[in-house]
Structures are given as C-alpha cells and as structure tokens.
C-alpha cells in the first residue's frame, strides 16, 4: 500500500472514516486493480493543493474514477484504472512545489501530447516498490482552442473520503476524453458516469 501522510490520516480520523478508507483500499487491491496507489497519490496531492489554496484540476482517468465512485461503487471497483495522476494547474511553480512536498521528483518533459498546450512535466516517486507518476500540465486545448481558464473556472469538487478533489464538470471531462481519441477511452468506460 502506498504511504498515506499523517495529515490525511488525521483528517480521516477526524471524519471517523479511517476504517472505511482502509477497507475500501483493501477491496480495490483484492480485485487486483492497479490504480489503488494512484488514488492514494491523488488524495495526497489534492489535500496538499487544497491546504495551500492552489487552483488545480485532477483530469484524465482519476477524474473519471472520482465520478464513477459517486454513482456506481461496483463499477468503481471493476473500473480498468490508471497508473498515473494527470493534473492541470494555472501556475506551474505552485504545482511543482506541491509535488515536491509530496515526495515527487522531476523525471522528463513530454511535448505535443493529448490535448496539452505546451509540454507535460512528468514527476515520479517510488512508493513501496511501485512508481507513482504525475503528469503536470499548464494548458489544455480542445479543437485547437485554449480551454484552460474555462476548465479551472468551471471546476467542480468531488468528495473522495472527505478530501475535496477538483475535477472538470462531467460534460467537460467527457469532451476531453473524446478529444483525446484513444481506443482505451471508449464509451463503455464512461458509461458508468
């Protein structure tokens, strides 16, 4: 299991949900889903960004997971998952600071990838024999139009074990997935939302 910071564990204890969280984490691992550690990484990073008051969005597969969990718990347990955390920030420095504070180190720069404006900054951390990867983006385009400000302004919060996670509105998330035009993002994976 990926490490959970004392801050997040204290929050779970204050909310009286620590046992529920641990049971759900165990359930995900029992059905051999590869994304349990990326969910914990998402919780940690979102908690850190929320505490600092930073503007951000969790995008991609984990945003889908947040929505699926709200409406279809069994679908969430069976969901194909994702091994990385995609995040959109308006200010790269704030995003990098939060990543470093969570133990991530810069790994590489990816250019011209899946709707990103500018490069994607890839960070990673080793955690109990697994590598957690974060793709930090500072811009998103759709139909060659910069929609970064729109996405951040129209974000919504989805509660994940008492941690508010900033995600795009569902219609924007579906549009982003369609724009990416990847076979693994077929309609069947979004039908649980």
The biggest sheet amounts to:
5 strands, mixed
Say how many strands there are. 9
Summed up, the helix count is: 9
Structural class: alpha+beta
Helical percentage: 40-55%
Spatial arrangement of strands, main beta sheet: 1-2-5-4-3
- Helix and strand succession? HHHEHHEHEEEEEHEEHH
Termini gap: 27 Å
Mind sketching the topology for me?
Blueprint lengths: L5 H10 L2 H13 L5 H17 L3 E4 L1 H11 L1 H6 L5 E6 L2 H10 L3 E6 L9 E8 L2 E8 L3 E2 L2 E2 L1 H6 L2 E5 L2 E5 L2 H11 L6 H4 L3
Parallel strand pairs: 2-5
Antiparallel strand pairs: 1-2, 3-4, 4-5, 6-7, 8-9
In short:
The protein has 193 residues and is an alpha+beta fold. Helices cover 46% and strands 24% of the residues.
Structural summary, described in words:
By secondary structure, this protein is an alpha+beta fold. Helices cover 46% and strands 24% of the residues. The chain is built from 9 helices and 9 strands. The protein has helices at 6-15, 18-30, 36-52, 61-71, 73-78, 92-101, 148-153, 170-180, 187-190, and strands at residues 56-59, 84-89, 105-110, 120-127, 130-137, 141-142, 145-146, 156-160, 163-167. The strands form 3 sheets. Strands 1-2-5-4-3 form a 5-stranded mixed beta sheet. It has a two-stranded antiparallel ribbon with strand order 6-7. A hairpin with a 2-residue loop joins strand 4 and strand 5. Helix 3 packs across helix 6. The longest helix has 17 residues, at 36-52. The chain starts with 5 loop residues before the first helix and ends with a helix. Mean pLDDT is 81; it is low at 186-193.
